[in-house]
Structures are given as structure tokens and as C-alpha cells.
Write a structure and sequence with these properties.
Elements (H helix, E strand, L loop, with lengths): L1 E3 L5 H7 L4 E2 L2 H6 L4 H6 L10 E10 L2 E11 L5 E8 L13 H17 L4 E7 L4 H7 L3 E11 L12 E3 L5 H11 L2 H6 L20 E6 L7 E6 L5 E6 L6 H16 L12 E6 L5 H6 L4 E12 L28 H13 L1
Parallel strand pairs: 5-6, 11-12
Antiparallel strand pairs: 1-3, 2-5, 3-4, 4-5, 6-13, 7-12, 7-13, 8-9, 9-10, 10-11
């Protein structure tokens, strides 16, 4: 039986949380929170950026099945991210995959719950090449991008801003959408819901969107590149947009301005000596070289999956049509049939 998290499940989640798999790398590296803490501090799981937690505890075929899964709803978007799932994917000594059944049941259940609450997509990020990929595919998830996370140990000192760069403003929203469309493959855009016309598209920053700041490169007034930074509790994030259409020098300048943006934040938001992470997807050519030039080093390889759910909608049932009275029709004999049948009846009587 799978049910929403309750106070009676505190001990179960506490025991399993260290044996779980994080499925949202950005949250884990920038704002790490234990799954139990998230479950206890999310009273409204499907409102705003609420966390929904579900627990599996039952006996099947003589063995105990225990596990939990957590999802985080994206702000202002009909989407959710898988945060944690436990137990971790493992294989028993006798070769029986002890967690495959748990993963499948938890994944299918949370996707059904997401659809029931009107969400259209559920995302997950797992180690590239790991056994978790097969479990996600088995539960209906599709791979749509691979990426490498780079890490810089410390933010450098601030430097002057060269011409052509300026802070990002709300009026740049349309220009950023066009930049995203030019630099992102159509398959990825479809997977991330950027072609649906929803509010907040494209998803340039989906976790804590109010804590992102950006700089755009707009020579001659046209936005040709952008860099956005997120200040986290345990680490910060840097995301570059438009690198595919830029030269190596222009891409390097974007990375530099992102780092300078972190270094020039107000004192209460200043990052300090915390690491900076950057995402490089497999289609972002040239970005890796620009990052390594500033001291970034590869940290982990991830694979991004999405499952499109079928959102349910309550529709009033149509009233039943009144029954139609059917009358039995008496066949009408033609004039040609009448004399022939009468002659046959007379012959039989004779």
C-alpha cells in the first residue's frame, strides 16, 4: 500500500533516507535538505513549491517492501521534479533485484498523483550510465538530454564589466525565449514544455526562481547571450544560454560575467567561499572549454528524464437519452406475393 507521508512514518523515512538516491541534482548541491526534514515541513504538498512525500510499506510474497518517494512542484508551472527515492537501486546476493519493484510502484504512483493534481510533466536526473536509468525507462520515463556538472571551488574577485553587457530586466523575457529556442534542440524544448505557451516558458530557472539574477550580452541592442546565477546555501549555480551560436571568446566573456555577478552581490547575498556549479549539456558546444579556462573541473555526469502525464479533468456526465419505444413492424406483402400464397394455401387444403 502506498500512502501520503504521516507522522507514523517518521522512523521509516529516517532509516531509509541515507540509502536513497537524489534525483534533482540542483537542489542537492545548492540547498541540501534531508528527506525527513522536507516531509515534515511541507504541509501543502501540491501548492506553490510544496514537496509531496509518499511511503510504501507492505508485505509481498513473504518479503517486506519499504520505500518512499518525494516530488517538488515547480513554481507557476504544471511540472514536478523527483527529489528522492529510497531504497537505492541494489541487487540482492542471489541476483534478485530487490528494489526494482519498489521503484516501479513508487514512480507510477507519484506520476499518477501528479496527473491527478493537474501536472503534465515529471522530471528526474540520475547518474549517467547507472542502473537507475533502466528503472526510469521501465516506469515510462524518456531520456531527453545528457549533461556534465562542472565545479569551481571558489568565486574569483570582481572585475570591470566590458561593453555590451548589462543586467537582465523583466523586459528581456521575450528575447530570452527566442534565445532559448535558437540554442536548444526541438526535442529538448518539447520535453521541457517550452512549446506549450505556458506561463514561465521557457524554464530558464525552475527551482527558487526568485533567487536568480542574470546578465545579458546585447551588442547593438540585440540579446545574443545570457548568463544566470543562483545563490544557494551550500553552493551556487551558473547557467549560460546561447553558447552554441557564440565564438569561444564571447562564451568565455559570458562565463566571466556570471562569476563577476556572484562576486558583486550585496553583502547579505554574498556567496563567500562556497563552490560554484555549472551545467553543460551535450549539445552546448564550446562551453566546457570556457569553464575549464576559469578553473572549473568536471564533477559528475547526469542523464535527464521526463515523463509526460495525462492530466485528469472533471467533466460533468451527459444526461442519458430517453429510451426510444420500438414498435414491432408487421411485414407488408406485395400484390405479387398475395395470389401466389393464396393458391398454395388452397392446394394444401385440397
Amino acid at each position: 500500500m502506498i500512502r501520503p507521508f504521516a507522522l507514523a512514518d517518521i522512523l521509516l523515512v529516517y532509516r531509509l533516507q541515507n540509502d536513497g538516491v537524489p534525483l534533482a541534482i540542483e537542489h542537492i548541491l545548492s540547498h541540501p535538505r534531508p528527506p525527513l526534514w522536507l516531509a515534515l515541513t511541507a504541509p501543502w504538498p501540491w501548492a506553490g513549491r510544496g514537496v509531496a512525500s509518499y511511503v510504501l510499506k507492505e508485505r509481498s510474497q513473504g518479503r517486506q517492501m519499504k520505500g518512499f518517494v518525494q516530488l517538488l512542484k515547480r513554481a507557476a508551472r504544471p511540472e514536478a521534479d523527483l527529489l528522492h527515492i529510497a531504497p537505492a537501486h541494489a541487487v540482492a546476493p542471489d541476483g534478485d533485484p530487490i528494489s526494482d519493484a519498489i521503484w516501479r510502484r513508487l514512480l507510477l504512483h507519484c506520476c499518477a498523483e501528479a496527473a491527478r493534481h493537474g501536472l503534465q510533466r515529471v522530471f528526474a536526473s540520475v547518474p549517467d550510465g547507472g542502473p537507475e536509468m533502466a528503472c526510469l525507462r521501465d516506469a515510462g520515463f524518456s531520456l531527453y538530454a545528457r549533461e556534465t556538472i562542472y565545479r569551481l571551488s571558489e568565486v574569483p574577485q570582481a572585475a570591470p564589466v566590458p561593453p555590451g553587457f548589462r543586467r537582465q530586466f523583466p523586459r528581456d523575457s521575450w528575447a530570452l525565449q527566442r534565445l532559448y529556442a535558437r540554442s536548444t534542440p526541438c526535442l529538448v524544448q518539447q520535453a521541457e514544455g517550452a512549446m506549450t505557451g505556458e506561463a514561465g516558458s521557457p524554464p530558464l530557472s525552475w527551482w527558487e526562481p526568485d533567487r536568480w539574477q542574470g546578465t545579458v550580452w546585447a551588442p547593438a541592442g540585440e540579446v545574443r547571450g545570457a548568463v544566470r546565477v543562483h545563490v544557494g546555501r551550500a553552493g551556487h549555480w551558473l547557467r549560460v544560454w546561447g553558447a552554441n551560436a557564440l565564438t569561444a571568446r564571447e562564451t568565455r566573456a559570458l562565463v566571466e560575467q556570471g562569476l563577476q555577478l556572484l562576486a558583486t552581490l550585496p553583502p547579505r547575498h554574498r556567496p563567500g567561499n562556497l563552490p560554484v556549479y555549472a551545467t553543460v549539456r551535450d549539445y552546448e558546444i564550446g562551453l566546457s572549454a570556457a569553464l575549464t579556462g576559469f578553473g572549473f573541473a568536471p564533477y559528475t555526469d547526469r542523464a535527464r528524464f521526463v515523463r509526460h502525464t495525462v492530466a485528469t479533468r472533471r467533466v460533468p456526465a451527459r444526461s442519458a437519452l430517453p429510451a426510444i419505444e420500438v414498435r414491432q413492424e408487421v411485414p407488408v406483402r406485395s400484390q405479387a406475393q398475395g395470389p401466389m400464397r393464396s393458391a398454395q394455401e388452397a392446394k394444401s387444403r385440397g
